[in-house]
């Protein structure tokens, strides 16, 4: 940056930069550094929403442009969350490479368990009468589920799966329980409301049925959920 015309500086010398100018220069340097090391097309956590902003699905933050997102990826918060996720996946013995989507293709889980096929399932569209949120209720039948096994659920981004061509407009809802094949449902890439009563799962051990309910955030909540100082959505 050219500081020679700043007040108090000598000709040919660099004046003292303001705080805003220093921060802008730092962000630009971080952006250039990130561009050299990160390919946004292969980043599983970036998502461009309907208003043109960029979201980080890992940190749940919103950024006005790709430069701001790239600077965020070099920050402490994003790097810490990456390390935590890697440690958790290593502890659970799973990762993007070890998961294949069930309803889209046969699953090849790296275990010695003999798979007996896909579970029976039923999907019902629902709507909250108070908040007018749209959602889905899943019912899976695990008649021959292994002893002491409780089905597990996970949301997978479009860039994590290896079955279809990556499309950021979609995400995948995955359910796994031995000895059944892992199954996945293709959903719109909308934020799920994870507040109590909105998102829940329950395994009926007597009837061997697994229930999951998800409600999507309203358009207002999706737009302002990461904006500081605004009140959270309605309960």
Automatic annotation (TrEMBL):
Matrin-type domain location: 54-84
Chain segments carrying region Disordered: 1-24
UniProt keyword Metal-binding present: yes
InterPro entries: Matrin/U1-C_Znf_C2H2, Matrin/U1-like-C_Znf_C2H2, SF3A2, SF3A2_dom, Znf_C2H2_type
Highest taxon above the source species: Eukaryota
GO molecular function ontology, one term from the record: nucleic acid binding
Pfam family, any one: zf-met
Chief localization: nucleus
Protein name per the record: Matrin-type domain-containing protein
Source species of the chain: Polyplosphaeria fusca
């Amino acid at each position: 940056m050219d500081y020679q015309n700043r007040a108090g500086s000598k000709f040919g010398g660099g004046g003292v930069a303001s705080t805003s100018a220093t921060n802008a220069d730092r962000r630009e340097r971080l952006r250039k550094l990130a561009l050299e090391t990160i390919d946004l097309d292969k980043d599983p956590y970036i998502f461009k929403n309907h208003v043109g902003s960029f979201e980080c699905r890992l940190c749940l933050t919103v950024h006005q442009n790709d430069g701001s997102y790239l600077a965020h990826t070099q920050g402490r918060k994003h790097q810490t969350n990456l390390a935590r996720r890697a440690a958790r996946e290593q502890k659970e013995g799973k990762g993007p490479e070890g998961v294949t989507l069930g309803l889209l293709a046969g699953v090849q889980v790296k275990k010695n368990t003999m798979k007996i096929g896909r579970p029976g399932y039923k999907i019902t569209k629902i709507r909250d009468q108070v908040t007018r949120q749209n959602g889905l209720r899943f019912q899976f039948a695990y008649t021959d589920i292994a002893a002491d096994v409780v089905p597990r659920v996970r949301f997978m981004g479009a860039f994590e799966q290896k079955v279809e061509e990556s499309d950021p407009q979609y995400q995948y809802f995955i359910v796994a329980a031995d000895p059944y094949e892992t199954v996945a449902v293709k959903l719109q890439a909308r934020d799920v409301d994870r507040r109590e009563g909105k998102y829940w799962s329950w395994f009926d051990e007597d009837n061997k049925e697994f229930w999951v309910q998800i409600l999507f955030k309203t358009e207002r909540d999706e737009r302002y959920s990461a904006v500081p100082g605004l009140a959270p959505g309605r309960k």
